[in-house]
Specification:
- It is a single chain.
- The protein has 296 residues and is α+β, with helices and mostly antiparallel strands.
- The protein contains six helices and 13 strands.
- The chain has helices spanning 77-82, 91-96, 158-172, 213-216, 248-267, 272-295; strands spanning 2-4, 25-31, 34-40, 45-49, 72-76, 102-105, 113-119, 124-130, 181-183, 191-197, 200-206, 209-210, 227-228.
- A four-stranded antiparallel sheet has the order 1-6-7-8, with no helix packed on it.
- Helix 5 (248-267) packs antiparallel against helix 6 (272-295).
- The radius of gyration is 24 Å and the shape is elongated.
- Residues 211-231 are annotated as: Disordered.
Length: 296
C-alpha cells in the first residue's frame, strides 16, 4: 500500500490512553481495492482514502507493493507520526519527483509488525512499525447517512474555519465549558460560529466558497475557480484573506454587530437564540450590500 505523506496526520485523533487498545493506532485497510486510513478517539473520527499511484511510477521495491484483498492492520500512532519524516525530502526534489512523497506499507506481513519503506533515492529506509491487536470500531456504521433531502452541505475555506473556531473558542470558552455552536441555514449563507461562556462571548462568520457544482464538493477539480461567495467571479483577492477595499467596510459592520450583541446580553432584552437570528439577518444584509458594491 502506497500512502501519501499528507494522509498520515490522521494519527492526530488516536487515543493512546484508552483502555480500548485499538484506538491507539491508525487503521489501514483495503476494501474493494480502495485504501483507507482511519483514526478515532471515540469522540471524533477522521477517515481518508486516496487514489494510489501506479506501481510503475513508484521507487519502492516490488515486494512492498503486493496488494492483499481485504487487508487490515492497526499501526501504532507514534509510528504513523514518524513515517513521513524517516527521510528528509527537499521541495525541489519533490517538485521533480513527487512519487517520493509516499510511504510504502507491506500488506503481506503477519508477524505483528508492519514494514514501512521510504526513499529519497540516495538512501532507503525500512522500519518495522508495531501493529496493535484489537477490534477497531465499525467506523462506516457511525458515519451519518446524510443526503440532499435531509441535510445541508456547505463548502468553506478550511483555513478560515480553523481560524474562526480557534478565535471564537479563545474568547468565549473555558476548560469547563468549551463548546462552540455552528449554525447553518443553507449552502449560500454564512456559517455562524458562536460561543458564550464565563462572561465572555464571541460570534464569527465564514462565508461559503463559490465555484462550479463540482468545485463546491470536497473533491473539486484542480484549477476550478473558487472565491468567497460575496465576491463576484474574477475579482482579484488579497494574498492572505482575499479582501478587496470595499469588503473592508464589512469589518466595521461586524464590529457594530458584536457591540449590539454584547449590549443585548447585558440588558437581557432577548434570548440568545433571538440574538443569533438577528445577528445573522444583519450580517446577511451587510454582505449583500458589499456584494452589490463589488459588482457596481
Amino acid at each position: 500500500m502506497l500512502v501519501p505523506n499528507r494522509v498520515f496526520p490522521v494519527h492526530t485523533f488516536c487515543d493512546n490512553e484508552s483502555s480500548r487498545y485499538a484506538l491507539g493506532g491508525v487503521l489501514f485497510e483495503r476494501s474493494k481495492g480502495t485504501p483507507y486510513a482511519v483514526s478515532t478517539d471515540g469522540r471524533a473520527m477522521v477517515a481518508a482514502s486516496w487514489d494510489e499511484m501506479p506501481a510503475g511510477e513508484s521507487k519502492t521495491p516490488k515486494e512492498m507493493l503486493a496488494k492483499v484483498a481485504d487487508y487490515s492492520a492497526i499501526i501504532a500512532a507514534e509510528a504513523c507520526k514518524k513515517a513521513p519524516k524517516l527521510v528528509k525530502l527537499s521541495k525541489r526534489l519533490l517538485q521533480s519527483k513527487p512519487a517520493l512523497a509516499h510511504v510504502a506499507i507491506h500488506e503481506g506481513a503477519t508477524n505483528g509488525k508492519s514494514p514501512m519503506f521510504v526513499t529519497d533515492l540516495e538512501q532507503n529506509v525500512a522500519v518495522d512499525a508495531p501493529t496493535i491487536e484489537g477490534r477497531f470500531p465499525a467506523w462506516r456504521d457511525v458515519i451519518p447517512g446524510y443526503n440532499r433531502g435531509n441535510s445541508v452541505s456547505v463548502c468553506v475555506d478550511p483555513h478560515y474555519l480553523a481560524d474562526i473556531l480557534k478565535t471564537v473558542a479563545t474568547i468565549g470558552t473555558t476548560e469547563e465549558a468549551r463548546g462552540v455552536v455552528l449554525t447553518i441555514k443553507d449552502k449560500d449563507t454564512p456559517v455562524l460560529v458562536t460561543a458564550d461562556h464565563a462572561g465572555a462571548r464571541a460570534v464569527g462568520m465564514v462565508m461559503p466558497l463559490r465555484g462550479s457544482e463540482e468545485s463546491r464538493r470536497p473533491k473539486h477539480r484542480q484549477g476550478d475557480p473558487i472565491s468567497p461567495a460575496w465576491l463576484p467571479q474574477g475579482v482579484e483577492r488579497d494574498a492572505k484573506y482575499g479582501l478587496t477595499p470595499t469588503v473592508e467596510s464589512l469589518c466595521g459592520t461586524l464590529r457594530n454587530i458584536l457591540r449590539i450583541e454584547e449590549a443585548t446580553h447585558q440588558e437581557g432584552a432577548e434570548t440568545a437564540e433571538d440574538a443569533i437570528a438577528r445577528i445573522r439577518a444583519i450580517a446577511h444584509d451587510a454582505l449583500q450590500e458589499v456584494y452589490r458594491a463589488e459588482r457596481g
